[in-house]
Amino acid sequence: MWAITRGGFNQKIFNLPKTLSRPLMATSNLIRVSSPSYSTSSPNHAPFKRVGTHNGSFHCDEALGCFMIRLTDKFSNSEIIRTRDPKVLEGLDAVLDVGGVYDPNHDRYDHHQKGFEEVFGHGFNTKLSSAGLVYKHFGKEIIAKELQLGEDHPDVHRLFLAIYKSFMEAIDAIDNGINQFDTDKPPKYVNNTHISSRVGRLNLDWTDPDQSPEKENEAFQRAMALAGSEFLESVRFHARSWLPARSIVRECIAERFDIDPSGEIMVLKRFCPWKLHLFELEAELKVEPLIKYVLYESLRYILIVIMTQDERGKQWRVQAVAASPDSFESRKPLPAQWRGLRDDELSKETRISGCVFVHMSGFIGGNQTYEGALVMARAALKM
């Protein structure tokens, strides 16, 4: 038997580092995986622990689950033991995706057993995979350490829910064979670019002449690194970008009646990713009437086609809010008679000075000034 070490596959199991506090049980399918740490402020001297998952073909959920559990204080930098031997699994400190038991009090996180119906809660009803189970029980700790806040801080809870929605839930659903849409119709296109597919492709190819457990575990180590790095990227994006943007959008919603008495026009004080936040906050704050247009300043290069050169300048955008987060339809698109027009022709049609363009679909338009963009939005509301 062999161990995968930080430097690669180069040590027999009986030559493990002296940090191993308990001997591994001898079994023909037992593999030890020692992968690099990606921990966020984990203790340096945590007790040595062993976390088990199954050997053989792997999926995104156990690769990510093994990565995440090693970010916790309890299982910081634990050894990953890949085996299906029940006697070995019984002696491990935690077991993921194998063993037929879900018991968080004893750190058992399998989801394949009959009768398992555990979900994340908080309005989410997708059955959990092993990754979802680890996230449910340890996600707040991981996020709190990344934000350097207490687990009871409201921002930690907000990110806990947001990351499940945007990142974790799809992994749970794919692993449990849950369709994304309630329809029997075949998809219009195939998407094999999501993280579950990319992790799956790291399994040994059937044409590979080396199908050894050692080679398989090298692949699993890469799978852990891939899934884990994208998880941490999601956590850090939400902390760095998502959370500040949500605060900005919330403030702008609160001030919408100062912009227009209708309450249907919102102005972004500072441009940020606003669309998903707007839908969520409208529901959370019970906004009525719904916002139809969002105004924001755009600093960009404008292509002057005839002169074939760029002119740098500030403009204001009038963007129609979509009917739903995934829809290309707008709640109230800019008027049909404006669409496809530009500059003087558009200003003449609208009787508003400074107009720049309106897209053919009516989802967005532009004006040279804030005042002009606001007049465009107000006029569009009445048409």
From TrEMBL:
Q: Which residues form the signal peptide?
A: none
A Pfam family found in this protein is MYG1_exonuc
Task: Give me the Gene Ontology terms describing cellular component.
Answer: cytoplasm; nucleus
UniProt cross-references to InterPro entries, sorted A to Z: MYG1_exonuclease
The Swiss-Prot or TrEMBL record describes its family as follows: Belongs to the MYG1 family.
Q: What PANTHER family does the record tag this protein with? A: METAL DEPENDENT HYDROLASE - RELATED, MYG1 EXONUCLEASE
| Protein name from the UniProt record | Metal-dependent protein hydrolase
